[in-house]
Amino acid sequence: MAELAISTTEGWRAAHAGGLVGLLEISGLAQASRTALDARKRETEARLRDRYKGFARQDFAALPVMQAYVQYYKKFGKTYHVQLQLESIVLKGKALPSVSPLVDANFIAEVETLILTAGHDVARLAPPVSIDASRAGDEMVQMNGTPKALYAGDMVMRDAGGVACSILYGQDNRSPISAATSHALYVAYAPAGVGAGVVEAQLRAIEENVRVFCSSAIVEQRRLIC
């Protein structure tokens, strides 16, 4: 199976100098029992509570990777949602959510590396696919069905149907991973200040989590673009 072609635009390179995008495309997926993945969730939650014991909100925001996202979101008057998820686990004793194995594989990795990552069903993406910067007048329909006007200058992914994902507003309602997905694309968005090594670690961690419930998964591509 040929990998999905994904390009970058001049607009993205101009607006997000120093930024990175990590791509992990996996096919041959079967979403079986989540029991082993649930065990990994509990291990991750315990590890995070031990790692960040005694932390307050300002301490999370000062973590090097988190700091880059906090600064990015602050430009638009927003709060980085992965910080809120991590705080809920460490400070409030909340558990990682259970959506589907392919979605959960990303959540587990995300709260460890802090790298913002979206997951798409490749069959629901309509080429050409590109990493771009949003422009005035851009809109998307969020996963909950709500139309959303986008801020100009946000990092986005487009396909032939329009904006499929935005850093600030998440994924559209056309292409997200579902329980029926057998071919997935994970896209890690990293603003300037996030090192390539952390993004690579995120892609590796997602793959490892996927293999917990689907050892036969095939990696079609795993790469960074900048």
Q: Which runs of at least 5 residues are low in confidence (pLDDT < 50)?
A: none
How would you state the average pLDDT, rounded?
A: 95
* Domain module count: 1
Instruction: State the secondary-structure class.
Output: alpha+beta
The helix tally amounts to 7
Q: Any idea what the shape is?
A: globular
Strand content: 15-25%
Compute the gyration radius: what is it?
Answer: 17 Å
CATH topology: Phenylalanyl-tRNA Synthetase, Chain B, domain 3
According to DSSP, the number of beta strands is: 11
The SSE order reads EHEHHHHHEEEEEEEEHE
Biggest pleated sheet: 5 strands, mixed
What is the end-to-end distance? 25 Å
CATH-assigned homologous superfamily: Phenylalanyl-trna Synthetase, Chain B, domain 3
Q: Tell me the CATH architecture.
A: 3-Layer(bba) Sandwich
Sheet with the most strands: spatial strand order: 1-4-7-8-9
The first-level CATH class is given as Alpha Beta
